[in-house]
Please model this.
Amino acid sequence: MSKQLPGIHHVTAIAGDPQRNIDFYTDVLGLRLVKQTINYDDPGTYHFYYGDTVGSPGTLLTFFPWPGAQRGRVGVGQASATAFSVPQASLGYWIERLVRLGVPFTGPSTRFGEQTLAFTDTDAMPLEIIAHKGEQTGGGWDGGDIPSEHAIRGIHSVTLSVADSAPTIALLTGALGFRQIGAENGRQRFEAGNGSGAGAQVDILHQPGGPRGAMGTGVVHHIAWRTPDDAAQKEWQESLTAAGVGVTEVMDRQYFHSIYFREPGGVLYEIATDQPGFLVDETAETLGSTLRLPQWLEPERRRIEEALPPVHVPQTVGLEA
Ligand code: ZN
Model:
């Protein structure tokens, strides 16, 4: 097969209070808020993107904050954990940081030879920090208070919990081109592309009879895999359709173009293009500082802004002249 998915483009989840979400991901985890926009399918809701300095694919965790929404339930049929990658030598820094900031965690425990810390965000969304043994891609974001050598580099992997792993694995290793690289403690690990990209790994937990997940705050909404451009995405759309997978039309998400389909275990997948990226409507210096709307919603900016709960966003101390 000529085309490959190099790994994760972004993970999108549901949050509750928007300000609490910003505070946790910027102040505690030290990610950059790279884009403040709205949910194009629901313009009364923010869409926040967190990532590295320029919002590189593979570093992005995004949220739809729904203040007052019902708490979700993490379980079978969902991505049950999202793991960030930090340098191997930074594990001690992160243990100290979580302790100092009062974030309860478990670990370190060893998974596939790497040290892992497990904790949750302010909406009880399961997160992990994995001290990655291999070479790190990307530089993270050093505009916050975390020294650049310890910054989160991007998404390491996601864990999917499914009632029957066989069909989920068949799609991954068949039409999507992943390969299995390990199995331990009931966890099977698969790798995308050549394994070198950020978020190139996905773990599958086979959990027949486990409690089913329910959508709501603290729950992952979908996992987006990367593809370079529109032409490659069209090939995916055609090959998945030929494989009997129901894929959507291409949707314009302003910073990337997307197609969506549900994998057999119940998890919603997306394939998102690397192009055009997050600098299409802001400079690297000002990313995330103001609410961005796509052209087709600009005429409604005033009404949209009035309906959104006000938030304050962190100043970019690292880049200000
Ligand atoms: Zn998405």
Q: What stands out?
A: Residues 10, 12, 222, 224, 270 surround zinc ion (CB under 6 Å). The chain is about 15% helix and 35% strand. The two ends are 48 Å apart (CA to CA). The CA atoms of residues 60 and 149 lie 19 Å apart.
